[in-house]
Write a structure and sequence with these properties.
The complex is a heterohexamer of chains A (about 525), B (about 220), C (about 190), D (about 240), E (about 350) and F (about 180). With about 190 residues, chain C is mostly helical. Chain C has 9 helices and no strands. In chain C, helix 1 runs parallel beside helix 8 and helix 3 crosses helix 7. Chain D has about 240 residues and is of the alpha+beta class. Chain D has 2 domains: about 55 residues; about 160 residues, no CATH class. Chain D has 2 helices and 5 strands. With about 180 residues, chain F is mainly α. Chain F contains 6 helices and 4 strands, in the order H-H-H-H-E-H-E-E-E-H. Classes of the chains: A alpha/beta (about 525), B mainly alpha (about 220), C mainly alpha (about 190), D alpha+beta (about 240), E mainly alpha (about 350), F mainly alpha (about 180). Bound molecules: flavin mononucleotide (FMN) (3 copies), riboflavin, iron/sulfur cluster (SF4) (4 copies) and FE2/S2 (inorganic) cluster (FES). One flavin mononucleotide (FMN) sits at the interface of chains D and E.
Chain lengths: ~525, ~220, ~190, ~240, ~350, ~180
Amino acid sequence: MSRRLFKFHGGVKPAYNKESSNHEQIADAPLPAEFVIPLHQSIGGIPRPVVKAGEHVQKGQLIGGPDGSVSSAVHASTSGTVKAVEMRRMPHTSGLSALCVVIEPDGKDEWIGHAPVPWRTMSPGEVRNALRDAGVVGLGGAVFPSHLKVNPGKEGHLDTLVINGAECEPFITCDDMQMRERPDGIIKGAAILRDLTKARQVLIGVEDNKPEAIAAMRAAVERIGAERIDVVAVPTRYPAGGAKQLIRVLTGIEVPHGKRSTDYGVQCFNTGTAHAIYDALELGRPMISRIVTVAGNVERPRNYEVRFGTPMKDVVALCGPKPDTDRLIMGGPMMGFRMPGDEVPVVKATNCILVGSKVLFPPPPPEMPCIRCGECAKACPADLAPFEMYWFSRAKIFGKAQEYHLFDCIECGCCAYVCPSRIPLVDYYRFAKSEIWAREQEKEAADGARERYEFRLAREEREKQEKAARLAAKAAETKAKLAAAAVAGAEDDPKKALIAAAQARAEQQKTAAETKTNAE
Amino acid sequence: MSVYRDITYNSLWKQNPILGQVLGLCPTLAITTSFINSFSLGLATTFVMAMSNFAVSALRSFIPFEIRIPVFILIIAALVTVVDLAMNAWLHDIYLVLGIFIPLIVTNCIVLARVEAYAAKNPVLASTWDGAMMGIGLTLVLAVLGIVRELFGQGTLLSGIEMIIPGTEAIRLLPEDYPGFLVAVLPPGAFFVLGLLIAGRNWLDARANEKARQHLLQAQAHA
Amino acid sequence: MTSYLFIVLGAVLVNNVVLVRILGLCPFMGVSKKLETAVGMGAATTFVLTLGCGTSYVIDSWLLIPNDLEYLRTLAFIVTIAAIVQLTELVIQKTSPMLHQVLGIYLPLITTNCAVLGIPLLNISQKHNFVESLLFGFGSSIGFTLALVLFAGLRERLDGADIPKNFRGTAIGFITGGIMSLAFMGFAGLDKYK
Amino acid sequence: MSEDRVPDPLAPIEVPPPAEASVVRISSRTATILLLFTLTFTALMAATYFATKPAIEASARAEKMKLIGEVLPKSGYDNDLLADGVSLPPMPALGLDDVSTVYRARKDGTPVAMVVEAAAPDGYSGRIGLLLAIGADGRLLAMRVTDHRETPGLGDYIDPKKDKNKTSPWIGQFDRKGFEDINPEQWKVKKDGGMFDAHVGATISARAVTNASGRALAWAGERREKLFALPAAAKFEE
Amino acid sequence: MLNNSPYFRQPASVSSVMLRVLAALIPGIAVYVWFFGAAILIQILLASAAALAGEAAMLKIRGKPVLLFLADGSALVTAWLIALTFPPIGPWWLVVLATLIAIVVAKHLYGGLGQNPFNPAMVAFCVMIVAYPQLMSQWPAVGFTDFSAQLGAIFGERHLDAMVMATPLDTLRTALHTAEAKATVAGVFGSNAAFGNIGGKGWEWVAVAYLLGGLWLIQQRIITWHMPAAFLGTLALIAGIASTAGPDKLAGPLFHILTGGAMLGAFFIVTDPVSGATTPKGKLIFAAGIALLTWIIRVFGAYPDGIAFATLLMNICVPLIDMATQPPVFGHKNDGKEGGKP
Amino acid sequence: MFSALFVMALGAVILGAALGYAAVKFRVEGDPLVEKIDSILPQTQCGQCGFPGCRPYAEAIAKGEADINCCPPGGEEGIKKLADLLGREFKPLSGEHGVEKPKSVAVIDENVCIGCTLCLQACPVDAIVGAAKQMHTIVAAQCTGCELCIEPCPVDCIAMLPIAEAVDNWKWKYPVFDIAQRRAA
Ligand SMILES: Cc1cc2nc3c(=O)[nH]c(=O)nc-3n(C[C@H](O)[C@H](O)[C@H](O)COP(=O)(O)O)c2cc1C
Ligand SMILES: Cc1cc2nc3c(=O)[nH]c(=O)nc-3n(C[C@H](O)[C@H](O)[C@H](O)COP(=O)(O)O)c2cc1C
Ligand SMILES: Cc1cc2nc3c(=O)[nH]c(=O)nc-3n(C[C@H](O)[C@H](O)[C@H](O)COP(=O)(O)O)c2cc1C
Ligand SMILES: Cc1cc2nc3c(=O)[nH]c(=O)nc-3n(C[C@H](O)[C@H](O)[C@H](O)CO)c2cc1C
Ligand code: SF4
Ligand code: SF4
Ligand code: SF4
Ligand code: SF4
Ligand code: FES
């Protein structure tokens, strides 16, 4: 039982605040008046809408077809009528809009026909397509299309498959409750993943502050008789749930930034994702809902099974938001994103709706200059030098910031959490990263423009030369003609011949000049 | 005529060798411990600059491109040697104080820079004027540095004047018991004062720019 | 042997060319904006200065002194150094294009570094023999490189600082140079043990 | 350098390709032009040199005489001091590790004083160079510091130019002192039990100068006769 | 405008850090007053007033929120350290001028708190010892605690002969390295009133009090052990080796760490987070470098205590030290070959 | 005097020959600096710098004939990079050449366009497609926003539209806390 665990550098121990929402069972959120289902809910290509306004759809019907392999399908969350396919505000800090399918439920909630997928007999490619079409994406937060991760790696088999049940962010208990109440689905999903990735072992990492979940999961493993699946309690320290950190804790392997974890023989899925994969393959159900924790400034914090597209305010209303509520946060207090309003829909990335207030999350005291105290470096789980990245990001010297491995930063927020100068460090990193990306794009565009410009110059040059050649040929022709005429005419009128000769000379000079100017 | 005005403005302010181009720093920092030192080296450099610009400009059509740098250096070095010998002969005390920095006028980048950037392309009179004005621009900064450092360091002005005009004496500007701020006359002081001078110039420039912008805005508002 | 060590250490630390002797300041201020270029400039200067000290010693004691031509020193030295710079460039270009890429752009700048003339002249005034001249030249150029590289490191960091507008760039560079020079004064007195 | 002009005698003779030929031509052209410039400007320098030579020599003499004049007034002697020197080998007793010259002043042919260089190796910041005028009677007539690196504003009062007390500078207390007045045991700073003052907080410099002057005086006193007797330009040997 | 994640933070602030540094200095100051009188308190007041005034003026000129930054307390730390490293009976303008140089030149010209590459207090110390070597080396004799005389020295006519005394470091160097060099370490110790049991009389106890304050800072996690340990360890090691090799001429390790500014430096000066190295390895190199240079300057150099110069010299090296000692980032340990497989 | 002339003459001959030789033998071809400068310029090809395109401007900078602050599309950012590359001091964008504008693309009002192909000929980067007498469109992804097509259009159907912010190209803003908050604390 006592497995050797490893440590990751840094990390913090914020107040967990999980007790409030993990007492009551997961409840189903009721149907809202309308669903606003964004098409772009995962990393990668934006799904194309395949329904039109006025069309009737059934629950689980495809409404957004995946665009290429790095993309994932989107389905109707209930049966009803498509009211519109239009731009709606996204659950995104920017508050910008994107294309959404708006569905008015008919209240019948009728499933479209679905059947288990015979994944055992299918080729890996077909399984991947099935997962993509079922819209299965990572529920741990990154919403990366899962079908791309179901991959045994270069060697044809994985060493360790990690199932991430750490749930290290304060307030969030959706994985905890799912593990307590629905462990069988998770274990079965893990077993499917084990077989698909040909993993030698499956380790389910759960932070040791969730003893009930651990017990339930272990019991489920026993009950199902799953082989090579082990539930491991890991020490509670934020961000133990970061994929890299959890892999490190469980296996000792550190997957560097920019490398695929399968190259190191490991892969990591969230517990919810494992469950969704079970649903998709064994039950044939596409992903249309997830468990969402509603916590923070509400009277009755609780977990709900929420269909995607449900406006957040409807979910929050179930829990009795307190009057001084001033914002909704999607995700936890360490990494969550502030929502532009409360009408934005729950999406696949919504593991938690954290209801905030000035009292609960007071505005940060004024930012002071960094005193290079090094606290942030001590706390950084990616072993970075946050203050150096900050120093150069703030001064917009992005090259230097990148030299300090800006892109290895997982934006966990530990550095900002400990900083005595209360610098919003992560904001600086986000700013720097998006500037660098924009710049790379600009650079690419500039390179393309240069190429096309040079191509155009070359083409113009060629055309000029061709024209010059044509003109020269024409001139030669005229000259010959005139000469012939002159010779012919000279016999009867020498004066005429002279004029003709002069004309020919002038013509010749003109064309020559033209040729020259054109060539220049 | 405006060519000469431009040269003058450029040399003394806009492209001032030290404040604008940040060249010719070594003598600027090393010998400006007193006004007299600064001023003498400034004049020596001015002489070399004017003469070398004159010589190069006059001879520019005979100098092949590929050996222009050696020829320039040759001309400058010859002129510097002339100055060196002359000061040794007739201003021996100052010669001893300025020491190695007289021969080093040769490598003072500003001399070569002016020769190459201006004298090699322009007529004799303008080139000579440019050399002289650049030299004076340099001398002015040297002099200011010398005055400030001498004043803070020793509380005097014109110390060492007896080397040039025997029998005269330095003027004491600060009271006798002023505890000289020694750092001012040591190398760090040179750096500090020059840094402050450059910042001061930046400030003046920024103010002028701001004024010009205000004018422009007002003009635009009127239009 | 130890006296040789003292010459080198003295030239590097106690009488650092840039910070104490105040020579070679234009490249010190001009080529110190990036660490990379500072290292390149330092390497190029080290090569030329060491070689220049050796050659100018030979020229001085074999050509000039025997013929009573000390007054030609300035000219002879600077011309020699210019030649060394040119030839170095030539040789490097031919033998190692790699090195040429690194040092190439700095070589022409060296002729107007007054340290390359100043150090040979100091060699003469301090009556160094041939080996001492070489070591003094080497030590001085290491001192130059050290100062330049450290300064460049500081400036790269200062690029990110919230420096008052009028002080940005050259002005704060001089203030920093001044504090560096002040710090090097701490070595004062160490050379009395020579 | 121009390899093509110095052919390797063992190499087979080749007809150079045309490009090489132009190299030779251009090389010789540039060489000629550079030569002309060099000759012109060297001539300029040489001319200046010869024109200024007498003045430079005169000012070097004047400088030396000025220094000597500070310790030995011109009125005290009538010979050509600089011509009446004896060269000394490196003399550790005087703190000198290089050759030096002792000049002798005479009035009407009789020796009146000699001017001796000395050095104190143990100043606060190293060597302090001294110039002493020692009378024919063995007294120290006057002393000056010729070069030093004592802390400005603290130890540099040993140089009367830097001494804040202009009316009676510190170094003046040595004027006309001899071992008759102060016995060698007491030729020290007061802090060490001697007779000479030193500025509080900067005894080291004073101590170094005092001790060095004592040693120099003792050395010169013992060899007085011999030093005056040697012919001009002779070499002194112990 | 509302902030982005993280939405809650550990309760820590710059001012609490700085205030605790000041608190840690108090035991040292108390012992200082016990042995050398209350003059030091006057100097601390002078320095603090100058620092606050200078800081406020510069903040105003630079258009920064004045009260917010004044409250951070860093200027007070600088001021106190200047006062504690300067002779307590120096004229009033000495410490005021020094503090202004520290705050205006060394701190605000570089952009203020957190941006200065050099330790402001040490810049001030170096400028002043170079500018006024005499004033900077007039240290009071032990037991001379007459407050009115001290006040006189600070504000009025300076009749110092009775109260000043060369400090142990100076006495030792003067006796051993500049004169005829007959004296020995033991001889000097025995004969001179400035010496106590190990270091300077009185000073050794001040040093012990600084040590206690410093240990408290480590316990408070404001400084890490790296720098004090590396500094004191290296200083003791070099002094130990040297004094074993030449016991007559070179003082031992205990003397070196208990004299001059060593203990104050180890815990309060070398540890300045802003101007010092930041990586764990870099901290060790930085502090050890200061120790080495301090010893060299103390024993062979022209200035009495080398800590200030050594600190500045190592400050110069900080960017390069930091660059060279960046710890490997996640996944790039073990040369990155195995992706950090243990 | 003669020894002086002789010694220096010797040096001159050797040096002159060597330099002449080197000058011919080792002439530097091509200028890598131009490439580096060109790669920093935004390739808008708008000519606002006073040169016919980015490359000519790059060449002028390399030769020292043009200042580094003449390219409005490159903006402060570009000037900073040039200053870094060339080791010069940063200076703000020179007003004579225009001001930094938000990046835009040209859009043709397809109802008005008469298909005259004049804009097509003006576009330096071939971002306009269409044939004679047919409606033209602009490939937004390829348009550099140089505005060169606006002038030639006889019916004024081309307009510049700033590139709209969308969720994918949205950038995190520079973190600034408002003064009120600072003052409050
Ligand atoms: C700082 C940080 C903390 C995270 N915490 C968790 C967590 O507690 N639980 C979790 O499942 N995923 C967490 N993630 C996401 C994981 O890194 C990873 O994306 C996920 O486990 C992969 O599984 P998925 O693709 O199935 O979502 C965290 C990520 C970061 C960067
Ligand atoms: C920076 C500094 C420079 C000093 N320079 C000198 C000096 O040049 N000459 C000198 O005699 N003492 C100098 N001292 C003082 C000596 O250290 C020592 O205190 C003094 O010589 C002892 O003299 P006292 O016995 O009269 O107090 C200096 C001290 C310091 C701090
Ligand atoms: C950082 C630093 C801290 C210092 N702290 C003390 C101290 O606590 N006690 C003390 O006597 N001197 C202290 N000094 C001053 C030196 O120790 C003092 O100058 C030295 O003991 C020599 O004295 P002198 O100037 O009389 O030669 C400190 C110096 C520095 C640079
Ligand atoms: C542990 C610690 C040590 C400090 N040491 C110094 C110091 O030696 N000198 C100083 O001027 N400020 C010191 N400060 C204060 C502050 O960091 C310093 O003024 C900054 O350099 C100002 O930017 C210290 C602060 C702390 C927390
Ligand atoms: S914790 Fe904050 S103040 Fe400390 S080093 Fe990091 S960013 Fe700077
Ligand atoms: S947000 Fe980035 S820099 Fe900060 S602690 Fe997390 S990984 Fe490190
Ligand atoms: S202004 Fe800039 S973008 Fe426009 S052509 Fe010139 S360099 Fe290119
Ligand atoms: S379409 Fe118009 S604005 Fe766009 S690149 Fe072409 S010419 Fe320039
Ligand atoms: S003047 Fe010395 S390097 Fe320019």
